[in-house]
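TL;DR need structure tokens for one chain.
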Amino acid sequence: MRYANGGGLTSAGRQRREAVRMPAAELSEQEIKPPEAARRLRVSLIPACQWRQSWRDGGRQALASRGPSGSRCRLSPRCLEKLAGYLEQGPAAHGWVEDQV
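>> reply
TL;DR here they are.
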């Protein structure tokens, strides 16, 4: 699901992406050029170049996942429960025609 956790990737998705970036650090340490790194990692040249630059700027830690992106939800738990209830009731319960989304 693309927008799990309030936005961005799920925890598993972030771990999968990090698992691709960490070998990029190893290749950078071996002074493998970005085109060859991209080929080995089966990614396009753009992320390979970006990962190498990040590695230069901050080492392996710069390639680690920083957790969920986006801002935190501002709704209280009570408001989230109410919203879920409203969504379960559907649009007609709130004055909308059934086929409107």
